[in-house]
Amino acid sequence: MTNHNSKIIPQQRPTVPQKPNVTAVFQAIQGPLPEPKDFAQYEQILPGSADRIVRMAESQASHRQEMERQMIFANIRSERRGQWFGLIATTLVLGAVCFSVYFKQPLAASLLGVGGISSLISSFITATKKSKSDQPAEPSK
Among 5, 16, 124, 130, which is 20 to 30 Å from 25 by CA? Predict the structure, then answer.
């Protein structure tokens, strides 16, 4: 019988580094008012602050609505003014064409007529393109 003083060393497995579990929480609030639980915390810290926050949001909303109303009326006035100027310019050009025809100036009448009509057409095309570009894009379905 042989006596061996040997120890059995268990084989060590190489350790694989563990990736830490990280969880990120993102919360987005859209609008001027905080969430109801946050209102309660504001009120605890500074009594009356929740009411001040609501009044601030209401004031901001009414201000924005008034600005939009003023912008709409300004756009309407501008369009109306442009239509009047267009009517006056067209009337003047037609008067000049009639004047040229009366005094037997066909070249001047033709140039004024073609120039007047082409400027009207180009202004309508420009206005149509502008109104289409100002409209919001329809959502795709």
Answer: 16
